[in-house]
Amino acid sequence: SLLNDLDLLDKWPDHVKQMQRNWIGKSKGAEFDFIVVIHNISNKKQKSEFIVKVFTSRPDTIFGVQYLAISIDHPLLSEKWLPQNTCSQVLQFVEKIRQQQLFELNDVNIGQGMHTGVFAKHPITGISIPIYVASYV
């Protein structure tokens, strides 16, 4: 891994390698699979399952999950997966955030989000929770 390979760099000073270790970082935690059931837009009788993998450094908080936030680059954000009634609005929101991120180099984008119209099944409780697309995840 990138972190382990820093030890192979003999000519780098130790303080530089340590700065790189701190920058790369390593999080310990757990990964959970949230199942998303998508009803085919063109044929309501068919359905597909989509897995959203979520990593958390605090697995003890899994029971308190109220929603999922996905980035604007997540594969769930396409006409194939989004419901008809929210698809165009969500894709417009994603494009707006992309444009803001290109031209605004500040923290204005943090905290913007929109419900996708899609829900995931909580991996432990089985409760249906909303999936949001967010400008910062």
Properties at a glance:
extended; EC 6.1.1.4; ligase; 5-stranded mixed sheet; 137 residues; Val/Leu/Ile-tRNA-synth_edit; 3 helices
Structure, described:
The protein is built from 3 helices and 5 strands. With 137 residues, the chain is of the alpha+beta class. A 5-stranded mixed sheet has the order 2-1-4-5-3. Strand 4 and strand 5 (128-134) form a beta hairpin. The protein is extended and about 60 Å long. The protein starts with a helix and ends with a strand. The mean pLDDT is 85.
Task: Set out the fold topology.
Blueprint: H1 2-5, H2 14-24, E1 30-39, E2 47-56, E3 68-70, H3 84-103, E4 113-121, E5 128-134
Parallel strand pairs: 3-5
Antiparallel strand pairs: 1-2, 1-4, 4-5
Tell me the number of strands.
5
Order of helices and strands: HHEEEHEE
Distance between the termini: 24 Å
Largest sheet: 5 strands, mixed
Mean pLDDT: 85
Rg from C-alpha positions? Answer: 19 Å
Q: Give the DSSP E fraction (strand runs of 2 or more residues).
A: 25-35%
Envelope shape: extended
Order of adjacent strands in the largest pleated sheet = 2-1-4-5-3
Summarize the structure.
The protein has 137 residues and is an alpha+beta fold. It has helices spanning 2-5, 14-24, 84-103, and strands at 30-39, 47-56, 68-70, 113-121, 128-134.
